[in-house]
Amino acid sequence: MRNQRKDKQLNRKTLLNSGAVFISELVKLCKASAINPDVTEALITEVLHSIFFLGHIHESAQCKPIVPQDFFTSEETYESFLKDFPKAFEQYCSFLPTRTPFSILLEVVTKMTECSDHSAVLKKLGDFCNAMAAKEIDDQYRNCYTLRSTVVSTCNFQDETGKSSSVYYGASLSCSGKVETKIMIALSCIHTWDDAVAHAVQNGENGAFLQLPDGVKCRAYKWNPTTGDFMEEPPCEKCHRIFRNINYQPEYTESDKTAQWHYGNCAETECLSHLLRGEEKVKSETVAYHLNEEQAVDKAEIMKKLKKRTAEWLRSRGFRITADEIHSRFFHAN
Fold this sequence. Notes:
alpha+beta
């Protein structure tokens, strides 16, 4: 029991520290970019809301939640952010995020680099992760709650003529905790990800998968804290199982290691969702299966069950909401 309390205290401490560092580094990055100030303001607002929300649901309803002021080292800094980004402070405990802080950071970086070179994107993300790691508290314990994503994935489509699509990016889920992870995957399936991806993620345990058309390429990169770089990483068994007919590089290899995380946790989920929404040919030729039989994606049925469970998870963490309210309670920065 004492060890459990200690782990909870460490997780709380690392979430507060990681959130504070993430905010500081993101603002610094946005100020140094040439992105339209109105765009960066909206993205910073969204990051603040996402971080404050994760603080709010970090512990059960019986425990003291983390409030926005806890993420700032001084009253002056807190008041400055409150003045500049009021909506995030007003709605973090009443509206739901659509993505994690690192996924929002990924949009900032791709806008800065114009997605033209994935190595430039990875370099920017690596610099960000290294800056965060340098300022985070000593990580010498089992359960570390950091908002850094460890894996970034890219994908694109090459048609029969050899013409390639844009490169699409995704990040692994950057939050810790069993309930928090379930909530963020569920919210992404309900609102953010493509319907076919939501089908595969929610029914993966029961044999669902997507058969993508020939020509889809996907690469994953894992951040190495020792070198500070993103290194190529093969897909996990779960992604290989639910996203099929993809040219994965490095190739998938069987091992005795089975992914312990939930379907939807991996970076491939987000980048493939962007691909399906951005490339009509890929979308139209992707086939959904369930128990090896072709099946139309029944978004309504997925949402009905998922919203009920999500509302229960949220209420267990002090977020008051019903299943019927979820659809209308997503946060919009603008």
